[in-house]
Amino acid sequence: MATSTDKTSTRDRLLDAAMELFYRDGVSIGVEALCRAAGVSKRSMYQLFESKDDVLAASLERRAPEYGRRLHLGPEDPRPPRARILYVFEQLEQASTEDDFRGCPFLSALVELKDPGHPASVVALRVKGTLIEAFRVEAERGGARDPELLARQLTLVFDGASARAGAKAENLEGLTTTAATALLDAAGMK
């Protein structure tokens, strides 16, 4: 009989494999390939998760904290709002140079699934919403004329650049920070 430690280990292996495979190969990866990569049986997977959809949602949930740490600054960061926003784009430009960069995993899932009610889409939309909200808060703090509009514009640049760089169609070096700077200037952001 499996112990809770065995189940946790199996769950961790499944989520680790799911994070890698779904990001690298897309959400259409089959259950057999996922279980093979995780070194677990399909039976074990279905004892832990109701479906592959639930594995995908859990893997995105697991990825969210690292995504947040990589892009957002904590409240203790002393930089002004404008610099804090530009930092997010600098991080995107830096990440896009990595060989295994495939774009934003949350945006990728949303685009592939095309169903806002899918469990993974719900997670992805929530995570993407935190980015929009972070931009809005900084825009408001920085005196932007319309913080909500600016946040949406910045997210559009972020997601579009992320998708193009993830598809290896664009080199982002200096591109997103320049575009974000123009939006910040146009919005009257300090």
The fraction of residues in strands falls at under 5%
- Uncertain regions spanning at least 5 consecutive residues: 1-5
Query: Overall pLDDT, averaged?
Result: 92
The N- to C-terminal Cα distance equals 62 Å
Overall morphology:
elongated
Structural class: mainly alpha
> How many beta-strand elements?
0
How do you describe this structure in short?
With 190 residues, the protein is mostly helical. The chain has nine helices and no strands.
Quick tags:
elongated, disordered N terminus, single chain, mainly alpha
Task: Write up what this structure looks like.
The protein has 190 residues and is mainly α. The chain contains 9 helices and no strands. It has helices spanning 4-25, 31-38, 42-48, 52-71, 81-95, 105-113, 119-141, 147-166, 175-186. Helix 5 (81-95) packs across helix 7 and helix 5 runs antiparallel to helix 9. It starts with a helix and ends with a helix. Mean pLDDT is 92; it is low at 1-5.
Architecture blueprint of SSEs:
Blueprint: H1 4-25, H2 31-38, H3 42-48, H4 52-71, H5 81-95, H6 105-113, H7 119-141, H8 147-166, H9 175-186
